[in-house]
Amino acid sequence: MMESQPLQDPTATAPAPGSAEPAGAPPAVTPGKGFTRTCKGLVVVLIGGYVLLQLLPSSLNYLAIIPSKTIPYVWTVFTAGYIEQVLPGAIGSSLGLLFCGKDIEPAWGRKEFLKFIILINSICGILAFCFAIGLYYVTGKESFLVTPLSGFHGCLAGFLVALKQLLPNLELPMCFFWKIKAKWMPFFVVCFSSIMAFIVPDSINFLPTLVSGMYVSWLYLRYFQRNPLTGLKGDPSDDFSFPSLFPAAMRPVTDPVANLFDRMLCARSRPSEVALPISDPTKASRRRQRGERVLEERLAADSAGDTEAVPHGHGTAED
Question: Residues 230, 241: contact at Cβ < 8 Å?
């Protein structure tokens, strides 16, 4: 079975075999089996938004971000993330939502999954508006004020960061026989999008949303998401630090940025971790690995038991 990392503090220990797990604890993080109802419902929203634009093209003015009209249409910064303007975008976003969501939602739960989507899409909408206004003042091109901005790609970028945290060694297919591990996908997408911005100038409109989606999701998962297993906020593990998003050769640049965020955002949240029994990172890492093995063995045993219990001719429930 592929090695995976549950969403937990690196110093937290896994429950011993036979012991009761804490109430509300998410299941062990493993690649999802099937698409969830939540993701299917959101796909209906994305496809429905695209169909609405085809039937009523004027609705784009009231649903997408058009910087020159955002005031007074301020609600567009919250609705734009669910509106796809072209069919390839609608199909790509729907597939990305289904395949990423089946791995993320079971680990977080439906409430946290929806909260993440709403939060990332809303902040990306606000930042996309600010970037467009900034680009207009820098370049003087009015196209930045009248070009409609919308799409689910900011949230998809956030999903890549979440997969890096939950399943860093999961291999994601790119094209043909080429696959890339989830832990390198955020960096790859940023590089690819930056290159495309120079080759296809119109694609620069997507770059701020992609970058802000990754960055905001990392900030939220690193410092603010509450861990149901430990009661602490964020994920302080070295495997999810800011430098871990980039190759090791870039550490001279990324380490100072990471230290700045630690001082700004962790100063008041870390004292509560002093009481944790494990302070040695090496011991914490070994214990985490032991905990992961226990969880994987338990999951394999439960899966075998479920297979035997399923009556012949009947399927299992999706959720």
Answer: no
Q: Closest by alpha carbon to 274, among 242, 232, 234?
A: 232
- Tell me: the pLDDT tens digits for 122-149? 999 999 999 989 989 998 888 889 989 9
- DSSP states along 52-80: HHHH-GGGHHHHSB-TTTTTT-TTHHHHG
Bridge partners of residue 175, in order along the sequence: 178
Is the CB of residue 82 less than 8 Å from the CB of residue 45?
yes
Asked if 223 and 19 touch (Cβ cutoff 8 Å), the reply is no
Calpha distance 255→292 (Å, rounded)? 28
- For the chain, the C-alpha Rg in angstroms (whole number) is 21
The answer to whether 78 and 122 have CB atoms below 8 angstroms apart is yes
Q: Is 237 left (phi over 0), alpha (psi -120 to 50) or beta?
A: beta
* 63-121 per-position pLDDT tens digit: 999 999 988 899 999 999 999 999 999 999 999 999 999 999 998 999 999 999 999 99
